[in-house]
């Protein structure tokens, strides 16, 4: 079985791992980015660690959470998961734009050896883009007095503090990085993405009657 993923977000990376745990298949990811997870920071607030099966995660190096960590750098987390998928023989078509999808045929233009081409798949999994339009303002700092009213925060393994607020962050804080994110709630965002990925995989496997009995 050959499956194409037209999104490399956290939920889709988790979906791919769960599918691979159940069936022998060939998975391809397509993205216009040069690397998975390294562009556009998202909320990384967590309640506990680990978040996923340890076999799904490559090294997060200096960003490896401890039991005291309440945040992880989202981009590094996704990168570590994608490395694990590459080790499971998944294909990542980077800097690649989808030009046309016809039935189960994906036509693309990219930066690879051929530059362009088309591939046939048994299944194509894409994003439905049902993202909330609510804007949250985020920042990272080492200033312990950074919390503001109606904000959420967490401490990353490198001791930087990640803060997300409904209002623009105060300018009197020495912010190391400023971010914006659209979504419902940054506090449970990373957990929600993982849950969505697991449900998507479960639904796919159930529909195809491929889910292994536990």
Show the helix and strand layout.
Layout lengths: L1 E4 L4 H13 L3 E5 L43 H14 L3 E3 L3 E6 L2 E5 L6 E5 L2 E3 L9 E7 L9 E5 L5 E5 L11 E6 L6 H19 L7
Parallel strand pairs: 1-2, 1-7, 2-3
Antiparallel strand pairs: 4-5, 5-6, 8-10, 8-11, 9-10
Helix pairs in contact: 1-2, 1-3
How far apart the termini lie comes to: 22 Å
Number of strands: 11
CATH architecture of one domain: 3-Layer(bba) Sandwich
Radius of gyration: 18 Å
How would you describe the shape? Answer: globular
Provide the low-confidence segments as ranges. none
Structural class: alpha/beta
Specify the helix fraction band: 10-25%
What is the top-level CATH class of one domain?
A: Alpha Beta
Kindly report the CATH topology of one domain: FAD/NAD(P)-binding domain
CATH superfamily placement of one domain: FAD/NAD(P)-binding domain
Task: Sketch the major β-sheet.
Answer: 4 strands, parallel
Report the total helices.
Answer: 3
Beta-strand residue percentage:
25-35%
Strand order of the largest sheet: 3-2-1-7
Instruction: Provide mean pLDDT, rounded.
Output: 91
Helix-strand string: EHEHEEEEEEEEEH
């Amino acid at each position: 079985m050959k499956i194409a993923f037209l999104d490399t977000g956290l939920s889709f990376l988790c979906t791919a791992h769960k599918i691979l745990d159940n069936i022998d298949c060939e998975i391809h990811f397509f993205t216009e980015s040069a690397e998975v997870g390294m562009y556009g920071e998202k909320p990384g607030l967590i309640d506990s660690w680990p978040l996923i099966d340890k076999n799904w995660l490559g090294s997060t190096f200096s960003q490896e959470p401890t039991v005291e960590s309440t945040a992880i750098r989202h981009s590094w987390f996704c990168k570590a998961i994608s490395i694990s998928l590459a080790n499971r023989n998944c294909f990542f078509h980077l800097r690649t734009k989808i030009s046309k999808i016809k039935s189960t045929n994906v036509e693309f233009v990219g930066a690879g050896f051929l530059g362009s081409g088309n591939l046939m798949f048994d299944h194509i999994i894409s994003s439905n883009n049902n993202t909330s339009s609510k804007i949250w303002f985020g920042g990272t700092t080492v200033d312990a007095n950074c919390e503001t009213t109606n904000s959420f925060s967490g401490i990353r393994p490198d001791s930087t503090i990640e803060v997300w607020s409904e209002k623009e962050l105060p300018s009197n804080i020495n912010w190391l990085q400023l971010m914006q994110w659209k979504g419902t709630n940054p506090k449970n965002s990373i957990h929600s993405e993982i849950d969505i990925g697991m449900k998507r995989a479960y639904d796919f496997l159930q529909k195809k009657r491929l889910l292994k009995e536990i």
